[in-house]
């Protein structure tokens, strides 16, 4: 029996199913979590299916999470999607259920759950949810779930520009677009930015620092974010923009948090950067990771390490 069938057997077994995803969610977190919830509601209308976590206004067009009482977790099946490490799970009540399943596409350095299905070759967790449906004959895919999952795939592949995009990714995306939803609207929505974010983008391009070896960085302080009337979550659209600059191999955006610490958004067009992220309390994909820093004193040493990674890289993806 395949792991998809194992997961389906557990879904059949439980009457209450609660689906979690990671903190500070992106379109794939929302798409995989809420897409799976929508699939289960359509196929098992008698079951109680919930999607929980922080409500991010900018992603409410994909779906919205629900608030549930603690007692709902009793005898429930909990599924966590798109979350590599347990501390990143949004709403720590995920441990209060009777049975736990992990579905994820990040490197499996924290294999939690009684069933742990990880495919770090998948472009996104949303792609894996489609694979789940395709791997279980009894499951059908409703149009609304297809819309959410398509948004997740497009979001996590950077509109199919990132290295994790495979022929299978395109086949899955094509399958989803056969359903009834406005594909162009999803693409436009994911490509749109608010005016304050556009102004921040202009600032980033104007003040971007780039070493001779192709390591780029920008520091976004609390004062600067206040000036642009933006919060940390609003910096997500800025992250891929730096990769458009010719000569940039890898880059980091330092976003100061309210407590003075920094969140590091680390990306690359070739050099492997997730090991560097681990040094700073983070991790992720080889070309897309996150980390943390206590204060700005650590930035110069970090930049030297990022520059060394860029220097050592001899691949062709440095245009």
From TrEMBL:
InterPro entries: DDH_dom, DHH_sf, DHHA1_dom, Oligoribo/pAp-PDE_c-di-AMP_PDE. Residues 17-153 form the DDH domain. GO terms for molecular function: nucleic acid binding. This is Phosphoesterase, DHH family protein. It comes from the Bacteria. Residues 233-310 form the DHHA1 domain. PANTHER family: BIFUNCTIONAL OLIGORIBONUCLEASE AND PAP PHOSPHATASE NRNA. The lineage of its organism: Bacteria, Bacillati, Bacillota, Bacilli, Lactobacillales. Pfam families: DHH, DHHA1. It comes from Liquorilactobacillus satsumensis DSM 16230 = JCM 12392.
């Amino acid at each position: 029996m395949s792991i998809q069938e194992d997961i389906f057997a557990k879904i059949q077994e439980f009457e209450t199913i609660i689906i979690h995803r990671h903190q500070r969610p992106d379109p794939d977190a929302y798409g995989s979590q809420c897409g799976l919830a929508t699939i289960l509601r359509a196929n098992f209308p008698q079951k109680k299916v919930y999607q929980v976590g922080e409500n991010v206004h900018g992603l409410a067009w994909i779906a919205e999470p629900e608030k549930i009482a603690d007692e709902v977790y009793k005898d429930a099946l909990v599924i966590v999607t798109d979350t590599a490490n347990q501390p990143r799970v949004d709403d720590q009540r995920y441990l209060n259920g009777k049975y736990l399943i992990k579905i994820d596409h990040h490197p499996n350095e924290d294999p939690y759950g009684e069933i742990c299905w990880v495919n770090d070759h998948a472009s996104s967790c949303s792609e894996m949810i489609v694979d789940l449906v395709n791997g279980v004959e009894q499951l059908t895919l409703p149009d609304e779930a297809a819309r959410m999952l398509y948004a997740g795939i497009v979001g996590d592949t950077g509109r199919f520009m990132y290295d994790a995009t495979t022929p299978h990714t395109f086949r899955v995306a094509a399958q989803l677009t056969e359903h009834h939803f406005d594909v162009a609207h999803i693409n436009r929505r994911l490509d749109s930015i608010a005016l304050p974010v556009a102004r921040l983008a202009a600032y980033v391009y104007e003040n971007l620092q780039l070493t001779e070896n192709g390591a780029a960085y920008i520091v976004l302080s609390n004062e600067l974010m206040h000036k642009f009337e933006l919060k940390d979550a609003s910096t997500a659209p800025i992250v891929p923009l730096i990769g458009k600059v010719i000569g940039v191999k890898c880059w980091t955006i330092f976003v100061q948090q309210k407590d003075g610490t920094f969140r590091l958004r680390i990306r690359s067009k070739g050099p492997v950067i997730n090991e560097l992220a681990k040094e700073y309390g983070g991790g992720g994909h080889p070309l897309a990771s996150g980390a943390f820093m206590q204060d700005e004193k650590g930035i110069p040493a970090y930049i030297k390490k990022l520059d060394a990674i860029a220097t050592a890289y001899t691949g062709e993806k440095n245009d």
